Amino acid sequence: MIPWSQLDTAQVPGGGQLRLMQRGTEFSIMAGSIELMNSRLSGSEKALATIACDRLRGRPKPRMLIGGLGMGFTLRAALAELGLDASVIVAELVPAVVAWGRGPMAEIFGECLADPRVTIREEDVSGVIRAGRATFDAILLDVDNGPGGLTRKANDRLYDIAGLTLARAALRPGGMLAVWSSGADAQFTQRLRKTGFGVEEVRVRANGKRGGARHVIWIASNPEARPGGPTAGS
Length: 234
Description:
Blueprint: E1 5-11, E2 17-23, E3 26-31, E4 34-38, H1 43-56, E5 63-67, H2 73-81, E6 87-91, H3 95-102, H4 106-109, E7 118-121, H5 125-131, E8 136-141, H6 161-170, E9 171-181, H7 186-194, E10 198-205, E11 214-221
Parallel strand pairs: 5-6, 5-8, 6-7, 8-9
Antiparallel strand pairs: 1-2, 2-3, 3-4, 9-11, 10-11
Helix pairs in contact: 1-2, 5-6
């Protein structure tokens, strides 16, 4: 069997380290001894985008925010579903992850980073959310390993009541927050409902086929504005 080789490491702001590993044509991003993602297992990351895009159909000039670039699977799947009038912001905290997508993993990423609909922002997605107000039709979060912080404790603030309230404020009426997780989290589901979201849990396979690990995607919908109520941008 071909052994794994370490291509690069990257410090995570606030603590922690990521490692980019390669074995033949297979890549892995590790946080310590824990594998965050693998180039062979992309089914649930793609599903995060396709499920969200399916609910965006018919919305003119949709604006999407993706938190976490990873190996680009969510971004590529979103671009394949969205029209030419869409715009996608990708917030990636670790600049090296973007560099890996343009360097050793360029074949996996294809042309998605150069797509004119895409803007890459090398910053914490929480700051982008905080700065937005009725800005996005969809916010997709694939940050850390889900609502439970693993690589960075500060990621927890995305998923607490205050963070979810900010996310809802950044959505347009009828928009959605879609969250990827490696597993179920009943307390997070309750927090979404307490924040005023309509919640649907979707379970998907990591490899997109039968068998293998089962991941969870929350689709949290922001209710449409009531007649005579405030509208986006008002």
